[in-house]
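User: structure tokens for Crooked neck-like protein 1, please.
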Amino acid sequence: VSQEQLDNARKVWQQLLGKSHHVRVYIAYSDFEAVTCQSMEKAREALDDGQKHFKVENRNEERAMLLEHLLKLEREHGDDTSIEAAEKRQPKREKKRRVIPGGEGEDGQEAYEEYMDYAFPEDNKEQQNLKILEMARMWKKRKIESSQ
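Assistant: Done. Predicted tokens:
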């Protein structure tokens, strides 16, 4: 397979991603890059692009699928460092509850349903920064109030 044919194939994949941001397209494109083109760097880029897209859309199931596929590719084609990095990015499954709109549970209380969600390590870092900022604001507010 010549380099020109690989470049044309990449263009076709990118056109498809422009039209359909489906998780299976990102996975197939990353497989193409890793196996056919033997470029783990481009495979990682494809999966990272999918991660960014699904993060903006708040689609955690798809993000988890992409990270799981990244780990699989790293185990097959990567080195120890990249495998370890992919393992650290894996999300944790957690059980959450949400209110059912218009639903009433026992004793007239709001009804809840349980569902599974994912906690991503990179998201937790962002949330920690926000918590630190909020605590700093509260400290400053208390300091101003106590000095008055």
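User: Anything notable?

Assistant: The first helix runs from residue 3 to 19.
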